[in-house]
Known about the structure:
Layout: H1 7-13, H2 20-29, H3 39-44, E1 54-55, E2 61-62, E3 65-67, E4 70-85, E5 88-95, E6 103-107, E7 111-118, E8 127-129, E9 150-151, E10 154-156, E11 162-167, H4 174-180, E12 183-189, H5 191-194, E13 206-214, H6 228-232, E14 239-242, E15 245-246, E16 248-254, E17 256-263, E18 270-274, E19 280-284, E20 289-296, E21 299-301, E22 306-312, E23 318-323, H7 334-344, E24 348-359, E25 382-393, E26 403-405, E27 408-414, E28 426-428, E29 433-440, E30 446-450, E31 456-460, E32 463-464, E33 475-478, E34 483-489, E35 500-504, H8 507-511, E36 515-520
Parallel strand pairs: 1-16, 2-6, 4-7, 6-12, 13-17, 16-24, 25-29, 28-36
Antiparallel strand pairs: 3-4, 4-5, 7-9, 7-10, 8-11, 11-12, 13-14, 14-15, 17-22, 18-21, 18-23, 19-20, 19-22, 23-24, 25-27, 26-27, 29-34, 30-33, 30-35, 31-32, 31-34, 35-36
Amino acid sequence: xxxxxxxxxxxxxxxxxxxxxxxxxxxxxxxxxxxxxxxxxxxxxxxxxxxxxxxxxxxxxxxxxxxxxxxxxxxxxxxxxxxxxxxxxxxxxxxxxxxxxxxxxxxxxxxxxxxxxxxxxxxxxxxxxxxxxxxxxxxxxxxxxxxxxxxxxxxxxxxxxxxxxxxxxxxxxxxxxxxxxxxxxxxxxxxxxxxxxxxxxxxxxxxxxxxxxxxxxxxxxxxxxxxxxxxxxxxxxxxxxxxxxxxxxxxxxxxxxxxxxxxxxxxxxxxxxxxxxxxxxxxxxxxxxxxxxxxxxxxxxxxxxxxxxxxxxxxxxxxxxxxxxxxxxxxxxxxxxxxxxxxxxxxxxxxxxxxxxxxxxxxxxxxxxxxxxxxxxxxxxxxxxxxxxxxxxxxxxxxxxxxxxxxxxxxxxxxxxxxxxxxxxxxxxxxxxxxxxxxxxxxxxxxxxxxxxxxxxxxxxxxxxxxxxxxxxxxxxxxxxxxxxxxxxxxxxxxxxxxxxxxxxxxxxxxxxxxxxxxxx
Length: 521
């Protein structure tokens, strides 16, 4: 029987080694394992069959402290433990707490310093996902924070109002460290979005939702990377957590509630809808509000993506946020197709919503929300092409971030190359407007994330982006066989010595090499 290590053991080892026995078992079952039997929960639970619910935790709101013209945010990376299930303590990691971190709230134009203290006992990083910051302040794999060290990057908030997040980006360790709890939200406010009559009272009618999936062992500890599908598909759990809460329930206080959604999972795709079949209204994408609200039956989010939705409720009603089956990925033949079908094909409950007597909505939703920056594709200086690839390879070393499986190597690549910290893959001129064309040559869907910038999605396989995808974004889903074209402008920061990353945001794929580096010069 395989020895089960602690969370720290998994993180220190990188959790990238999988035995041949696990490979064969995983390939045969293409399923998920859990000592707590929670797979049945995730696959079969419905809103009307759950007998016990837990009140949804709301992350603490952190506005920082003023010091010498800066706003200082004190963030401590630390180990802890959390009781997710009665009578069982789970070793965890967190920021200023035992699991996850506070919501860092800042305003456009604000000068901030992120004072990050590493109390973990091993190295880590903290990346400001979606923020436009200098490369040396980005928190990627080059900005390692040693044990007991303090890292204090300073920068100006140059964003539209929106939901962003921070998380570990340690080379070959991102998946394990995020899985253990190193992540939190960043809420950026600006004058344009704040002037709108939208729900905005944090924790009352403006609710952040960090949606994640985990697996647990019999002793309550996290189970991570113990089967072949964990690497090929990315790690998927069988227990859904929202803000670190198992089986969560939220009591609605207003007739209209704003839900700020983050897919904080390592690999799982969510297709979010209401259990009562009613529509939701999407008002934002990753990096900004939309120009106009869009009514939708479901909202699909890949790892790293965000969206904001409005849900209306009637007094004394209840319904759930659920995830519908997602069949866009895993369409390849043989084992890969089977694994894809086992990955995102379940329907399950994410969050129960219950309403009592509600404060009513006094004003209608604005016809127009904000102006979203756009760039003229005809004036783009260059189109860069990126092809996402994966497969079994033989005779390759570990330098590029390969994961060993049985007698072969699992190769995760972009343009045929795996990540190398010593290699710069792209050099982008400062001020350039560019189109990046991302093609998926694999049987699985991949969320493609670009550091430094926010972009606009131009088209998918030649079809213009739909209205709900026309806000600013930093992460975009690319389905099997699909080509997505995005456009952006690289402004403000040039540094030939410090690179930014672009990568698949399935964290196990990133850790295994589906990542590249670019500098702005």
